[in-house]
Amino acid sequence: MKTTFTLSHFIFNANALKNRLHYFVLAFVLVAATYTGAQAQTKLWDKTYGGNDYDDLQKMVALPDGGFLLAGDSYSGKSGDKTQPLMAPCSEYEGCKNDFWIIRTDANGKKLWDKTIGTTNFESFTYDNLTTVVATPDGGFLLGGSTQYDWYDSNYLVIKIDANGNKLWEKQYGGTDTDELRAIVATPDGGFMLAGSSVSSIGRDKTANNKSGVCDSFDGNCPFDNWLVKIDAKGNKVWDKTIGGANSDDLATIVATPDGGYLLGGTSGSSKSGDKSEARVGGACDEYGNCPLDYWVVKVDATGKKVWDKTIGSTNNDNLNALTLATDGSFLVSGTSTTGKGESITHTIWTVKLTNTGAKVWEQHFKKEAGAKFAAQVATKDGGYLLGGSYYTTECEDYTEFCSDDYWVIKLSATGAKQWEKAIKGNSGDILSTMIATNDGHYLLGGRSVSGAGNDKSETNRGQADYWVVKLSGTVTEPAPQIASFSPGAGLPGAKVTITGANLGSATSVLFNGVAAKFKVISKTTLETLVPATAKSGRIQVKTAGGSSISKNTFTVLQPSIVKINPMAAKVGSTVLVTGTHLNTAKEVSINGTLAKSFTVYKNNVLKITVPKGATTGKVSIILAGGAKVTSTRDLKIIKATVNALAVTTEPTEIVAYPNPFSTSVTICLTLVKPENVHMVVYNSAGHIIRSVAFGKLEAGSQRLLWDGTNNQGNLVTDGIYFYKLTANGNVTTGRLLKSNSAR
Length: 744
Known about the structure:
By secondary structure, the protein is mostly beta strands. Among the domains are: 482-557, Immunoglobulins (Immunoglobulin-like), CATH 2.60.40.10; 561-639, Immunoglobulin-like; 657-739, Immunoglobulin-like (Sandwich).
């Protein structure tokens, strides 16, 4: 679908353009991206509210009667759903100046009343941009935002209204330059904490200079710091705090913590400096002073004093938008991660779970082909989270049209696994900005839209951009999972197993014969899992919110074994060969609890171990990389050095050579406690000598004797059974060998 815009859509004064530039870049988009949700959530209803111009919904509040308060700002006059004119008339030279616009609805989204509220105590009317709203104990509301009256001066703006939307009082807080209020939270004493960003120096309500220096309004180099303002219930300022580093630090949100303090979440371009205790993750600033951005979380006490801070970042520009506190004191931070420059910029949603001290627990990235931007998140009753944002495409035919955005929500489990996602679409540009849980267990999504009726939008647009609210079902009936197959059918503990089937995308657990396993969701039809260390052979089970599925076939859990130890008596520093099965991933070997620091794996079934210092007589234990463990049934005897030349048994049944069977050559190991002359004779199955080798006098220690598989004439012997006899200092050791070309 294409839409034609007239020139009048873009005629604004400079201040209006500055305040709404981000909206034009993203909101006027026409080419719709296609998306199929992993689980189809139900749209319960949607509502459009607007006047004849631009109306931008920012925040919503769920009310005790099931209704809602919608809060944003508007350039519209008295028209459409807007019953009151702007506070100041539009002018030919300055255009229109926006005001707060508040709408009260019932539980079904029916408008009950609306109010236009703005600043009136300046000589000239100002631009009033709403960013936040909180309910107050008396049933009213505190509206927060910024009021801008010239290019370089804006203040925090707080307006108290009653339950019917009538203004009770208005307060402004500011320094000497730009101050932008982002969030408000109630304090235990009945007052409020205002949280935002400031480039102001000392003056007016600001009692400290910025940590990042003085703003240079002429070149636009005005770095922000976090600015907290504590007010009482009547709006009187109690104290203020400036928190920041050497570069720009932009606060986005604040939440109260159970200990009476607060968590601040935002974006920082600062290195380790000022209140910032950690280095910038994103790297160095460029030649123009533009610094890579990281998430920055700051914990402060009830008086605004910093307790700790944490920098979370990547090599990209990372802009934090939301912070949600969990009941266990952990918290989730989410925002938009940006890579590239110019036309190659790509946006992804990045969410990170942190402990109550800021340590990372897990993280997730969510992206669309052409990019996505984060807006809001809410905690869900099951301990998980619902993330909300918008995604868009760059598939534009020419510069006369824009590309389309859609609302996009993603449900996560408590461990960060994606359970489902859903796109909510109009037929043009729709930008999600806010999201809340409703009293009846559902979700309300809100933002701005330039779409007409079509797709998920049931009503025509009123003006050039409208409030668009969508109620989405909070429950979903998921189909039960189905296991079709798994591969391989057998494996050691720690081995990777791929499970395929249907409806696996929301898996909550994978079990091997009842033992829980680590797993990763690859897609809704594929899981990757690791065999648990304590698992036994049996069936595999997958559980999801929709039920569980048990495999038809049995998975065989392989376990390592020790078949032979040679020699059964050895001294410290000598070599012992351990023969068994599935030993190729050995990561730890010990003799009676003493770790062997030196060991080598030969093929799949032989370990060459150097007896460690401090070892005593006892069992040999081997632990594999996947956690499996095997212990010998017999003891390895640790002996002191003697004058015997051979430290190996003379019992043929305990002789070890490797590889055996062999295809071309075979190695026989022995340990000499002192230098000795060693001689080897090889016999065929008929008892005839086919090869005699005098190795001469060999040094004390571990020796490897190689037979290259040839007879005394230098010809390769044929496949079959052979016997060897080793003689050293009168001691004889014998063994049996098998030559087979198939042993390659």
